[in-house]
What we know:
With 273 residues, this protein is an alpha+beta fold. It contains eight helices and ten strands. The chain has two domains: 4-125, N-terminal domain of MutM-like DNA repair proteins (Alpha-Beta Barrel); 137-266, Helicase, Ruva Protein, domain 3. 28% of the residues lie in helices and 21% in strands. Helix 1 packs across helix 6, helix 3 packs across helix 6 (192-212) and helix 5 (169-179) packs across helix 6 (192-212).
Amino acid sequence: MPEGPEIRRVADRLEKALVGREIVGASFGLRRLEPYADELVGATVESVRPRGKALLTAFDTGRVLYTHNQLYGRWFVVRAGTTPRTGRSLRVALETERDRALLYSASEIELLDADEVERHPFVAKLGPDVLDAGTPPRVIAKRLASKAFTRRSLGALLLDQRFLAGLGNYLRSEILFFAGRHPSERPCDLTDDERAELARRIRSITKRAYTTGGVTEEPAFVAEAKAAGEPRRSWRHAVFGREHAPCRRCGEPIERLEVGSRRLYLCPWCQGR
Length: 273
């Protein structure tokens, strides 16, 4: 499933294509939504915002399109009059005079009134978005120390969207590695300085993934690996997906664990307890 950085990059593409533009054509590929397509025609898109792993597209009519890609959903942005080559099922089409924004294969789609958004069952459970400007490291550190989260294991906490929206499985492994923390540790086991460092890593690694299109490894290691002709899968992440490969910091083999029924990768030396 795409994580927060990937969803934010999708939001950026949709924003460029749609915001400030009038919808001249709209359709839904789900029968329950078909009656609402006509009311979007003539509306202007005001914003496209990520909320964790969901997208909220707001119109000047007071309506908000909620979409969640889940595992298989994918947005395409193409020029007006064109259609991407795909075998996927079209679920949403929003067309302007210049572009078409097309959502394929997703099933979690709803058209809401603006005042319903924060009460939506998914949105209501979300914590602050990890990449929002209003979620700097000091806010994250405060949440790590809060009663609601401080006794949770880090391996579980970093997948809990109530803690921070937008984190996911590859980010969990990468954040813990760069922070030098073991997944069994809890925020309450750390000093104030250690929680502050973890908070900085949560923010910076997620931001790096957003900026680079999913690469979390440090730029110096990426450049070295590229120069050596290594494939992308070997340098995209420091530990995630690199079971048995040597840690680039200490040389120890990367290990894979199952934590919260999800795979987690770590360096037993750099993150040992």
